[in-house]
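User: Good morning. I'm curious how zinc ion would be positioned relative to this chain. Could you predict the structure with it bound?
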Amino acid sequence: MKNQQSLFESSPEPWELDDQPQVMIATVVFSTGPSQPFDYLIPDELISQVVPGRRVYVPFGRSNRPILGYCVEVENRPLTSRKIKPIKSVLDEQTLLSSRMLTLTRWMADYYLCGWGQVLEAVVPAAVRGKAGTREVTLLSVSSQVATQLPALKLSPKQQQALQILAVSPRPLTPPELAQQASCTTAPINELRKKGLIQTEIRRVSHAHFDDESHEREQPKQLNPDQQAALAVILESVGAENPVPILLHGVTGSGKTEVYIQAIENVVAQDRQAIVLVPEISLTPQTKQRFQARFNQIAVLHSHMSDVERHWQWKRIAAGQVDVVVGARSAIFAPTPRLGMIVIDEEHDGSFKQDSLPRYHAREVAAQRARLEGIPLVLGSATPSLETWYRAKSRVYQQVAMPSRVGNRPMPYVRTVDLRVEKNPNSRGAISRQLYLAMRRTLQDEGQIILLLNRRGHSTHIQCPACGHVAECPHCEMPLTLHLEIATANCHYCDYKIKAPNHCPECQYTGIRFSGIGTQKLETEVRAKFKEWPSIRMDSDTMRKPGSHEQALERFRSGEVRILVGTQMIAKGLDFPNVLLVGVINADTALHFPDTRAGERTFQLITQVAGRTGRGDKGGEVLVQTLSPDHPAIEAATRHNYQMFAMKELPFRREFMLSPFAHMIRIVARGPQQSQVELFLGELADKFTQYAAEQKLEVQLQGPAPAPIEKLRDNYRYHLLLKSVSLDAMRRIVEHCRTALSLPKDVAWIVDVDPLDMM
Ligand code: ADP
Ligand code: ZN
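Assistant: Good morning! Here's the predicted structure, ligand included:
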């Protein structure tokens, strides 16, 4: 590592010797403050404690104020700089990051263009950094040397007695314990400590424990031939030298989870661990149970875990006591000591990309971790991301297909309902006549129904018919959504809300109109049309309380509730054999977003939700209401034809230099003054162009232009897109220009490598 200490201008210190002896030097990175690493001298007394992966306090700047950093490297080398400063102290008794995790995080910092220290701070949970659930205790003991001299020592009777008791105690005692046993105060004990007759050790102990209840066990299922073939491919790569990632492309209900589990059983039998990543919303009790029924030691990492439990689980995992870690995105950083396999279920899911610093994609990080550890990565999906699909087609990844459902159940029959021609004479609601009839039939057949609508709230549009005024958020300029239950109009981009208007605030007309349908209104319509059948709604408004998700699904599973209405929250992973009908209320909600991935998202969503039916013996049917039945994404989804979708989409991606054919870096700047933001990004774009030309780097620049969400929380937003086949070229440009341009006071900007969110 480069020595950066020459930046300091402090005077030479006694430890700065001239004859250049070998010394121990630590490289330290910081999560805040300096973005580059600095070298520090390790004083002799700290040599055993300063280890890569622990945090240390080091003096910084002219004032030498102590700041906290991560030691990432320790090296024995000649002392060349006169100005190197010594580490002050070590914060962690245990290593927070193994050398492999250090390598991985360094790669992340390079790839995602952020500081190594920032990555480390994001990778080690705050609960672990804060040592949640542990406390420090002082333990006293007597050395054998002192013990033999004990009768000869001149001490007060109280001191004599305390020392005597401690000398014969079978274990070290805390000061209050010793005081109690010796029937004295802590004063004589402190005297003994001052005289150096008592040894003091400070140890951190955990006071937390979380016992897992025992679980019903399940035997492995007899695999069908497709599953066997898939398992064989995975197991072959478990023993391989440098296995490549495997795409397990299996239709919904093809039994992918059983394949993952049997592959992991094999890994665990070799005394190694596995990490299973699932989308955040699939982290349901059902998922947990499936793994608990098959493995003794699992850790489920979820977002509403207490800090104490998170730290406890982390330590169990680091100690190698956990066989399988199941969790969302950040579980990829689980500190498993002997990792044997990584599985990502629903690998195409957008929740694997983090939308705050460091903006990593867990799939890419997993691929890197698997490569470093020399282990297989299994990517499962019915609708693979085009990135993964393309890599499999180009034979960079291996691929296995499971084209049919378990038990050869047919795929559900999918029909589109063309909303342009379909008219419902009975109502102007969201449920078309065809869907209404299908729902009646299903309910009479004792079946259950899932209705998907990807918009929450009651009415998504509030407008005055007299003057045309649309109710908007003053901070985001986005339309407000009516939430009838709480009688408010809310902004879905910030926390702004007002009392639901009953007249137009502009012209005072009293007939203000609410239109556009959200899940709340849909639920009302369902209740009115199907009075005799209980229904339930699942969206982020009704599922606020912890445990509400589980309760709702349990009521649906038990059959008490016959109709489940919800947002995309219900589109994934649910395995209920009695769901005989799925209705997609509006397939177009995601289709017309100003985003190149709109088609892909629509295809995935319809395929996923369609996969919730036809899971039992009674089959299943799907009705997709749409204004664009001929759209390729919708057409391919109705035919369960991934290939058809990919073949339409890939040429388009190639033509416009989009992923997977090129890389993209998106830069978003925001600030309260529109002109300032625009000007800043304009200057940045000029710098980029200039540097690219100088260095002959082939990079396309798009923008700057207002972002689709032009204003958010009182900040104007502009974005700039860089595209290139060479991510490296783009990274060089951004890295260079980042330092060359000073940021106006009120403007902030972010750099998003391989962006998913284009809003
Ligand atoms: P996927 O994840 O591919 O959508 P699942 O793993 O949820 O599919 O499997 C669908 C259903 O089939 C589950 O209820 C599962 O228990 C069952 N299943 C999987 N494999 C087998 C098998 N070999 N024999 C019988 N049932 C199976
Ligand atoms: Zn707002």
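Residues 221-224, 227, 250, 252-258, 406, 575 surround adenosine-5'-diphosphate (ligand 1) (CB under 6 Å). Residues 112 and 652 are 26 Å apart (CA to CA).
Let me know if you'd like a different ligand tried.
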